[in-house]
Each structure stands twice: as structure tokens, then as C-alpha cells.
Specification:
It is a single chain. By secondary structure, this protein is an alpha+beta fold. The protein has three domains: 105 residues, Nucleoside Triphosphate Pyrophosphohydrolase (Alpha-Beta Complex), CATH 3.90.79; 32 residues; 122 residues, Nucleoside Triphosphate Pyrophosphohydrolase. The chain contains four helices and 18 strands. The strands form three sheets. Strands 1, 2, 3, 4, 5, 6, 7 and 8 form an eight-stranded mixed β-sheet that branches. Strands 12, 13, 14, 15, 16, 17 and 18 form a seven-stranded mixed β-sheet that branches. Strand 16 and strand 17 form a beta hairpin. The model has no long low-confidence stretch (mean pLDDT 93). Bound molecules: zinc ion (ZN). The site of zinc ion has 8 residues, from loops.
Amino acid sequence: MSNTSSYNKYSSQCVPDNVSDQPVWCFVFNAGSLLVKVQNGIINVPVKLTLEELKAWEKTRFYLGRLNDCDCYCIETDENAAVDKAAVPEEMIFKKFRSLFGRIDEEIFMLAGKAAQILDWHKKSQYCGSCGSKTETKQDELAKVCLNCSNIIYPKISPAIIVAVINGDKILLAKGRNFKFYSLIAGFAEPGETLEDCVQREVFEEVGIRIRNIQYFGSQPWPFPDSLMIGFTAEYESGELLVDGNEIVSADWFTKESLPEVPNNSSIAGKIIDWFCDNS
Ligand SMILES: [Zn+2]
């Protein structure tokens, strides 16, 4: 897959060298919406503002590091920020973060996803899960610490596999109960299993077949709220398709000429399906 990385233009850091009064890059969130600047129909994100301009709204702020040699922050605003139109800077608007997927630069989307995940983690880790005491944000790494019992809480990342099973010139696609499109088999890794075990288990549970030759394809963070999709390809080995009727409502083999509507190649599912079309 393409080597898109948010680290091409960006270097990660948790504490700024100094706090600037100059405009900085800001990923400004409000209840799942992201502040964007729209110019001639083009969506620009992050926005450049001074930290002073955000002071009236700001509830939470984390330093993310340097983006194109400029400091970069993520900020959660109070609930009034999105409705107080008079206070929103000129040409800026809050847009649902998820709706920006595939519509903005992929590297910037990944960095915005990091920002969203950090803010979500901050909100959900205010108290220690072990003893219930209030936690504090660590200064030297992206973590929270409980001063009472020393429990350390890192941002949560939930790994999930996604796999294309290939059978000759056909690819296996399945339709989930709550999904509009056919796509690849996917599911969350369970404690104690390797990613390869997870691929075998998910395919068998959802469509009842055995597979072999599992190969890593690539990965994609999916910040809704904290998944990391890990893509694989595999070959059909044995068994008849039998959908579980629960998570999956239908599944079938498709040639590249007979593909139904599938996710576009902004997603890792679309990228793997494109790879199949290019190689079959
Ligand atoms: Zn504790």
C-alpha cells in the first residue's frame, strides 16, 4: 500500500520548547466536530490561530509537536464554541470530523485522528481505573499517572484486523448487518491471540472457511474512537461459505469485473480491493 505517514511533515513531542504568542497550528474540536477554514470551497485544516484567540473557549489543550516547523496543538472547546457563531473566526466552521475522511489530505487526517484520540482518552481517563483517584497528565510522555497507586494510563489503541481472502481470480466480500457496502472481513483482536490467529478466527466465525498464507498488507489508524486497522491478504484453503447471520448477512466471491459497490481507496479496505484488482 502507499507509504502515507503523518510523520513526513510532523515530529511528535509532548512538551513545547516554549509557548509562542504567534499563530500556531490548532486542531480545535467541539463534541466530535473539527474547526476548519473553508476558502473557495476548499477545506483547510488544521487552522492557524494564536493560543490567545482560543482562550475563551478552551477546555483542554495538548501539545502535539511540530508540523511543518511550527508548533501544533489539539484543543477541546466548551460546548458553546460551536453555537457561538459570532466568536468563530472568519471563514471558519465546525464540521463533523468523520465527514472529513477522504476529503482532506491523508497525512493531515491521520494527525487530526491522533488529536481526536488524545482528547477522547483525556476525557475518559480523568480517574484511575484501579483505585478511583483523580489522575494527572505526565509531563515527560503521553500518559496519565495516578499519584495514589502509581497506575499509568496510556492512550487506548484497539487493534482490529481486516483481510482479503483470495480464491483464484475471486475475492471474498461480505456485507455486515449495519453496513451499506460489501467489504472485507474485519474484527477486533482478542487478548492472547496473534494477529494471524485473529485473521483465522474472524474469517472462520463470520463465513465458516479456512484460509492459509496470511500476509501483512499495511495498516491505518481509525480514530472512531481508537481503532488501528491492520490489513492482510490470505488464500482460501477449504470449506463452504456459511454466513453467521449475525454480524454478516451475506458473503460471496467476486471477480474484479463483477465487484459490487465497495469502500473507496481512502480506506484500507478500498486500498486492499484496489490491490486485488491490479493483481488479478
Ligand atoms: Zn490509582
